[in-house]
Fold this sequence. Notes:
This protein is mainly alpha-helical. It has three helices and two strands. The chain has one domain (about 1-59). Strand 1 (about 55) and strand 2 form a beta hairpin. The longest helix is centred in the middle third of the chain and has 12 residues, at about 20-30. It is globular and about 25 Å long.
Amino acid sequence: MYKVLLEFPRENGFDKSNWTMTALKQWINEKFGINYTEGGARTSLYEGGNLQCKGKKIV
């Protein structure tokens, strides 16, 4: 999941300039068939790589 965050959402079929939790959880669902809540996706990011989120934008 970390690798996709290094790419722009547009490279992965989303009409956005930055990753949001909504877009990320949709990508996870489409790629892996896992239906996270936004909180679940956020928790996975924090536990998996100590990423920080700022508002709705993933930093």
